[in-house]
Amino acid sequence: MKNMVYIQSGGPTSVINSSLYGAYKEASLHPEEIDHIYGSINGVEGLIEDKLFDLKAEDPHQVELLKQTPGAALGTTRRKLPKDIDDPIYMEIVKNLKKHNIGYVFVNGGNDSMDTCNKLSILANKLNLDIRVMGVPKTIDNDLACTDHTLGFSSAAKAVINQIYAVSKDALCYKVGKTHIIEVMGRNAGWLTAAADLVPEDGHPDLIYLPEMKFDIEEFVKEVEKIHQEKGYGIVVVSEGLQFERQGKNEVDSFGHAQLSGTGLALSEILEQRLGLKSRVVELSILQRANPFLLSLTDRDEAIDVGRFAVKAALEGTTGKMVIIKRLSSTPYVTKLELANLDLVANAEQKVPESMMLNHHRMADSFREYLRPLIQGNVELSYKDGIVELTTFKKEIVK
Ligand code: F6P
Predict the structure, then answer these.
(1) Residue to mutate (ligand 1; options 253, 287, 349, 350; most atoms within 8 A of CB)
(2) Taking the alpha carbons of 377, 381, 386, 390 in that order, is the dihedral positive or negative?
(3) Is 115 a catalytic residue?
(4) What's the pLDDT at 177?
(5) pLDDT tens across 205-243, in order?
(6) Atom of ligand 1 nearest to the CA of 240
(7) Active-site residue (options: 141, 197, 206, 299)
């Protein structure tokens, strides 16, 4: 009998803990094959530093709450593993895998995290370790290759749409209001920004700028001026990853990606300089991905299913694969789960295709058809004294 370790990696989402829940529930059904179910504290760092805790030792109610808890309950990391598989860090990992009799490793993350997963799989193969390594997809950016969509994207999209709709009602209540610049996450991929196109007509943004579209600052200024003159206010949705000349701090995270927030502010300054126009910047920021109140039930349930599927596949002998979602139909919405090779997913970036974009005002119908089923269904939350209940683990380190 072997033990399993679950790793959460990269940026958190509203449903990453639901995949952990699914994996935990499935693994618990097979005590004859999987004994301990360990969580690695702060992603792969827990495996390097020997910081694992036993999920079965946690309060079962806290485990249930994973289904409505955003963030990454195990702790996450953006640490990249070295290219050279002979690097001493891998020996630390192997030592700890052996120490805890690990037979199953699950890495729940996006494209950089699938690189970590792939490296662990290569390591297990190279050293002939009896360990199955599986990827569980996640990222609000929806930029993973091979899968129809990623877990966490749908809830983030639902949060973006609903929050912009609410902001629009605030924006239009004065006779002469402000231009609202709403900044959306997603890095170099515009999936989340594009979601703004699903805001109903009575609050629909005037302008939507994806990083995949050509962005001309002169045209942007002219468009905003025209809208302000016509309506007295405006709603402009911009992706954090828009490319234009600006003064910046050039900070990068440990995966090596530029830290992108500040796009809305930079554009607001440009509007003030060029037009003397005061605008209001709304950074949806973490409320896009840490928002239990706007969870998509579809996303939450798919996240659980994908976690379960990964464990089932590993128990059947699969290794070196990531679970992918294949869409069979949008109306009615039908999908099936399959597996893709990790090396096809690791580090690859899936952007919004041209066929789904129309212009700076509208996305194509194909995009709306793609997104609509993903945001369906609401999750009923449990509250205590008027406050939503969220998981806290004791995390007692296993000796
Ligand atoms: O994980 C993806 C993401 O949410 C991006 O959309 C965003 O650019 C980035 O993470 C922000 O990362 P952090 O929270 O580590 O600053």
Answers:
(1) 253
(2) negative
(3) no
(4) 87
(5) 999 999 999 999 999 999 999 999 999 999 999 999 998
(6) 8
(7) 141
Average pLDDT over residues 270-293: 96
Query: What's the number of CA atoms in the CB half-sphere (13 Å) around residue 107?
Result: 34
pLDDT digits (tens, 9 = 90+) for 25-36: 999 999 999 999
CA 234 to chain centre: 29
The pLDDT-based confidence of 245 (bands split at 50, 70, 90) is confident
Name the residue with the closest Cα to ligand 1, atom 8.
Answer: 187
The predicted model scores a pTM of: 0.95
Query: Ligand 1 center to residue 313 CA distance, Å?
Result: 29
Q: How far is CA 195 from CA 111, 167, 251, in A?
A: 21, 15, 27
Assigned token pair, 59: 């309060």
Residue of 42, 114, 138, 141 to test ligand 1 pocket, by largest number of atoms within 8 Å of CB = 141
Ligand 1 binding site (Cβ under 6 Å of any ligand atom): 10-11, 139-141, 185-187, 240, 253, 259-260, 289
Ligand 1 atom nearest to 186, measured from its CA: 6
- CA-to-CA distance for 196 and 161, rounded, in angstroms? 5
- The amino acid sitting at 279 is S
- Whether the bond into 332 is cis, omega within 30 of 0: yes
Residue nearest to atom 12 of ligand 1 (CA): 11
